Amino acid sequence: MSKEVVLSGIRPTGFLHLGNYFGAMRNYVRMQDEYNCYFFVADWHSLTTHPDTKELRNSVLRVIAENIACGLDPEKVALYVQSDVPEIAELYMYLNMLAYKGELEKTTTFKEKVRLQPENVNAGLLTYPVLMAADILVHRAVKVPVGKDQEQHLEMARNFAERFNHRYGDVFPSPQAFNYGTELVKIMSLDGTGKMSKSENQMATIYLADDEELVRKKIMKAKTDSGPTEANSVKPDYIENLFTLMGLVSTPDVIEKFNTDFNNCNIRYGDFKKQLAEDMVQFLKPIREKSAAIQEDKAYLGKIISTGADKARANAAATLKAVREAMGLNYL
Ligand code: TRP
Prior knowledge:
The chain has 14 helices and five strands. It has two domains: 5-185 and 297-327, HUPs (Rossmann fold, 3-Layer(aba) Sandwich); 210-291, Tyrosyl-Transfer RNA Synthetase, CATH 1.10.240.10. It has helices at 18-31, 43-46, 56-69, 86-96, 101-106, 108-116, 123-126, 128-137, 151-168, 212-220, 237-249, 252-263, 269-296, 298-327; strands spanning 5-10, 36-41, 78-81, 143-144, 176-177. Helices cover 55% and strands 6% of the residues. By secondary structure, it is mostly helical. The mean pLDDT is 96. Bound molecules: tryptophan.
């Protein structure tokens, strides 16, 4: 039996951080043996909000390098750049005829972007979910690892697929959200406000590219308080978050020690953060070094990207052939 198709994309609009790593990339790495995986950098999507392409090239290359450094094996998965696959644009156009202005205008992310960038409410922004549907459907993917904020888009992709199938004949399976068994870890920002972000509150977000000094500095500045006053009290969320991070990068005995200290009200947050910072530095070091080495090696990067494009295009072309046949757009 052929493996199920898993697909996910990431916009290159900033630096990848711990939230991306623990919430997404680490799971992709686990999926690569079990599924037929397509992972890509959504550079077209980033144009809907970042029309200036000055930094785009470096961001795209960095995201590719970081994904490999985190353990994605470009021999096993198709790792590619969206704009290298013109079949996606063709499918996007067909799907646009099946997407209604009213439903697009009601999309939560669209309304949010209209609020954030009222001076640039472009048609690409409105049809963002259609492009995302094309990304998914072009590989006839059934499993799509995404966070909560993308579930509405995924539901729209299912609707577009269903409308297509209903009108022209069965081509697309129904894509579903997929998050590898257990719940997703949420990584909150170090100042205790919201999630870590690719482009906002940079001192409260730890990026995979941060050097050792910066990682130490950010963790030492993380929000704490004067400590618990009652034994076994509930941790405030900003403290819980630091323990979550420790749970991901420290050894069991270290985690247990600080938990016990917390529960006995003799935790010293200075020491706690120092330990967390050291363990985080050790954790990130191989990823950062590998990513930097890959980014230096332009020939290797070029080969990865072109191999990924070939794999993605071969599969996408097969889907487009089925699409054109179903639609009767085959005149030759
Ligand atoms: N919209 C996604 C995000 O903002 C990125 C994305 C683009 C994506 N195309 C996709 C995710 C297809 C999953 C599948 O994070």
